[in-house]
Amino acid sequence: MTPSANDLLAIARRYWGSDQAYVFRQERTAEDLRYEALWEEKNSERPRWGALLRELRKELPDCKVWDYTPPLANPSFGALVYPPYERIMSRPQFIWTVAGYLSILAPVYTVHCVRHQYLGKRCLDSKVFLGPISMELRGIAEVVAQRIEANYGATALPLEVAQTPVPLYVNFMKPPETTLFHALFTSEPWNIP
């Protein structure tokens, strides 16, 4: 069962501040210390996450699957799945990525898509699609979701809950733009390799 938006906000408040008092200071906040301690504990689960990525590689042999769990940057383990594509150097093209995140703060996950527009090797633009996944990518997204659910017992965070605004400062996100999605998964969903 998915926790309510209020339950998730209460969890997020333990790890993210509600003001910017410490932004320009050297001291760590109580939230920072709890967040760092949680990551210290969760780092022991990296081999388990690695096993999930290996399963995805077997189930999606035509795709490239990468770990995207930057230490401390995101409050989640991340998997990026790149469907096959042919790079065209002479004109702009769209390259899609399916991103799956498992929160370390709560037993929830999300799967969404990111579209990068490239000209040759230069990225011109990135756009996140949190809503319904396009038909071409739906099969990949379902495999990612099934693996996370099977391996971790997490539940998908509904989009309407994920988009709930929260009065928290999450990395460079600040109110009123900050949502539960940012607090639980990543503050920069478009910023992936």
What is the mean pLDDT? 94
Put simply, the count of helices is 6
Task: Kindly state the number of beta strands.
Answer: 6
Helix content: 25-40%
Q: Which consecutive residue ranges, at least 5 long each, have pLDDT under 50? A: none
Q: Helix and strand string, N-terminal first? A: HHHEEEEEHEHH
CA gyration radius, whole angstroms? 17 Å
Question: Structural class, from helix and strand content?
Answer: alpha+beta
Distance between the termini: 32 Å
Percent strand equals: 15-25%
Largest sheet: 6 strands, mixed
- Inertia-based shape: globular
How would you characterize this protein structure?
This protein is an alpha+beta fold and 193 residues long. It contains six helices and six strands. The longest helix is centred in the last third of the chain and has 18 residues, at 135-152. It is globular and about 50 Å long. The mean pLDDT is 94.
Q: Could you name the key traits of this structure?
A:
193 residues, six-stranded mixed β-sheet, 6 strands
